[in-house]
Amino acid sequence: MSHAIRPGDVLAGRYHLVDLLDESGGGLFWRAYDSSLERSVAMHIIRADDERAELLREAARTSARVVDRRLLRVLDVDETSDRTAQDGTALCYVVNEWATGISLDILLADEGPLSPRRAAWLVGEVATTLEVAHAAGVAHGRLVPENVLIDRTGSVRVIGFAVDAALHGLPPGRISADVTDLAGLLYAALTARWAGVSQSLVKSAPHQHGRVLRPRQVRAGVPRVLDTLCDSVLNPYSAAPGSHARGSYDLTTAGGIADALREFVGDPAGLADAEVAAVRRREAGGTRTMPMVPFAPPGSTGDLPAQEADPLPDPLAEPLPDPDPLPEPVSRTEQPTEAGLPIFDDDGSVAWIAKRADTPPPPPPFEDLPERPLFAPDPADGSPARRPRTPVGPGHGGFWPWDTSTGTGTGMQVTTGSGYIEAVEEFDEDEGRPGRRWLWLAALVAVLALALLTIVFVFNLGSDLPKIVGNDDSKPAASRSPSTSASADAGATAYTGVAADDFDPQGDPPEENPETTPLAVDGDAATSWKTMTYSQQLGPGGLKTGVGLTLDLGTSGEVTEVDLTLVGAPTGVAVYVGETAPRGVKGLTPVATATADGTDVPLELDQPATGRYVTIWLTSLPAVDGGFRGEIAEVSVLGAAGE
């Protein structure tokens, strides 16, 4: 029977077609109602003789092997002849679960780019599903924003797994394309631009010199971790060597991308709840009804069947009553108002802006200034023209800054030759002289600072006194251990001209404050070489197993003892001797080890060792503020230099 497939038709006696959602080359995607299960379902429908029909059936059977809560499961695969194409051909259909929500492409069109954490969580959910599917050898084949859905519960659902690719005539098993499209989903969520290999309705990402622009070049504020992830997957061959950040994740697999995104998101609690409100806002706007679409084979361009237009409403039998007359407009002279003028009364009147009828009186005239005499008048009664000023002495406060005599002024007023002026008010004895309190405070601070400097100087002088005056031959040296004295008696001498270099084979870069290494062999215990401050202690559980110095003796010779002056305790030390500078300590045998609880550490070798390079390897560091840090103030190597 020749007819068009339209809303309301029933397929296989149970599937009532409701809305046509998409069409691709004769393949239809419908929302239908399953009367047997009494719920909505999604249906992919195609002609049974279409070359894609077998691909569609095989894709449905393949996707059924993947079990994941984010997938819309395949419920039925079959052919039907009760509803056919216009030429009577049977129809092939695949039935999937139905989920109500908003797809990613519509979400981006409505809201624009998502926040980085929201985008990473959403794509991470899709990546977790792909990880399960790829482990079973099944690929989605067309992972585009249109096939990613956020449902009413805020969960991420993947639509058309393997089936949508078959409906578009794409070959199955494109796992590598899934990985690239997965990075394209993250790119789209961050920039609202599509950069995957599959075709999508989302606007394409910009390209430059044959490569996709990084997300940070399209939208500001994208975190570097997500920017590098997208660029590593979308531009695997065009990036310069070393431009991608090193990491422990394999970004060529969906599992590696899922792990990287999970680490970026952290705790995902609350993210799904935040999506529920966005879905409900769009559900309140209603559902768009799709028109009837005739079924035609791929490439057909026949005319669509005509549809009857809705009849026009009957004309009204009686005319409408006349509208009420509009109120008389207020005269511009009666109501002088403009938009935006303030209103001060409850009645809304703006009469205050009207021009005043009465004119205000003019201001009174200015009074003439009195004339001032050019010269002072002559004094009366033959008194002198100038009167001597009475000397004014210090007041009751005992302080008067202009006192030049021993007068005894009262402090109340001072007379002059032409009259008198009011003197300064009496000084309050309780307040003291102005500035005296601050002077006393400054003097006290200066005395305390001087005393503190004296204490520090005396302490340092006492600690350096043996270096200044030398050791008394009649008394044993306090800084020399018995083993050091024994080795010195045996003819061992300290090497001179020793050069020090930092030794950090496990660093990146392999440097450990190289600019301060000469301070460890300069003969001054007040200067030192320091390691960097580490948040964890050295050792198997730390960032490094050790760090230290390499000493170049200048020539190969016998080493019998190494004396260290350390800062802080405790410090783990190991000593290595060799003919060449080591690249690491793995496989080397230390000639001496110790855990120093003090600052002076003499390390006497059990057996003399021969070599040019002496390595001081710190295996544990003293605790300091903010972590752990080692410090070597002085190193002295004793032995017999070679000829």
Automatic annotation (TrEMBL):
Annotated region (Disordered), positions in chain: 288-344, 356-406, 499-521
Molecular function in Gene Ontology: ATP binding; protein kinase activity
Entry-linked InterPro entries: Galactose-bd-like_sf, Kinase-like_dom_sf, Prot_kinase_dom
Residue ranges of every copy of the Protein kinase domain listed in the record: 15-344
Entry keyword set: Kinase, Membrane, Receptor, Transferase, Transmembrane, Transmembrane helix
Comp. bias intervals (Pro residues): 312-328
Domain of life, source organism: Bacteria
Gene3D superfamilies recorded: Galactose-binding domain-like, Phosphorylase Kinase, domain 1, Transferase(Phosphotransferase) domain 1
Bias (Acidic residues): 501-514
Membrane-spanning parts: 438-459
CDD domains: PK_MviN-like
Name of the protein described by the UniProt record: Protein kinase family protein
Annotated source species: Nocardioides islandensis
